[in-house]
Amino acid sequence: MTRFSHVFFPILIMVFMIAALAGTLLLAPTERTMGDVQRIFYFHLASAAGAFVCFTCVLIASIGFILRRITVWDNLAVSAAEVGLLFATFVLITGPLWARPTWGQWWVWDPRLATTLILWFLYAGYLVLRQAMPGYRGAMAAAVFAILAYVDVPVVYFSVVWWRGIHPQVLGGGGLDPDMVTPLLISVAAFVLLSWALIRERFYLANAADNVDRIAVALEDVSSWVI
Amino acid sequence: MGDLNYLFAAFSLIWVGVLVYLIRLASLRKLLEGRIETLQDWVESREITHD
Which ipTM did the prediction report? Predict the structure, then answer.
């Protein structure tokens, strides 16, 4: 397990990230109307997939915390929210960089864009709330908030179906060239693996910090008892 | 700004973001190691005092 997590797993992620880059630049065909700038799509959608995986992890961990009331679940939720926010930031950065040359504007108040921005603020708010309210009460409040915030995830996904906007519907919309599917899947796999690895490391550090806190408190108690 | 510049700007920003987050994780790890070391020193100094 240690050998897998410290040697094999980082190498696997590196291989997938290089494959994703090669697939995006070399394997994927050049889109007819947008040209090379359309290649941003492979990282834009993969970042969104990574963010959705992280936010789903936050939901599961928050439910776990409410049911079991142990800090491990809270640590997992905070770790996943932090990584999810990073990937959501990638979505909000790559989107306008793709929109400017294709739509002629950096930002349009399209339902998909607006709901994604709301999602970013919701999880940023979650982390601020968790930071501002330490301890059990803060963890419980954050868990409830995270469950409510997750409602926006399906809203982001279905916003292109429910409301008319200019953002294209890629999955289920039938607009994806078959040659684009393989590089897209490699990119999504690479970003999901990367998000998993980052959550894992952050989660390990959060648990270790909790254990050190507990040991410090216990040592102080023992020390005062001995004296 | 040419089309390729937008593409490379997007790629670069993603990699910079990942790198910044890895630095954050490394600094958190370093902080934790520092705390463990302080705790170990404290335990050792206590043992000396009580012996």
Answer: 0.88
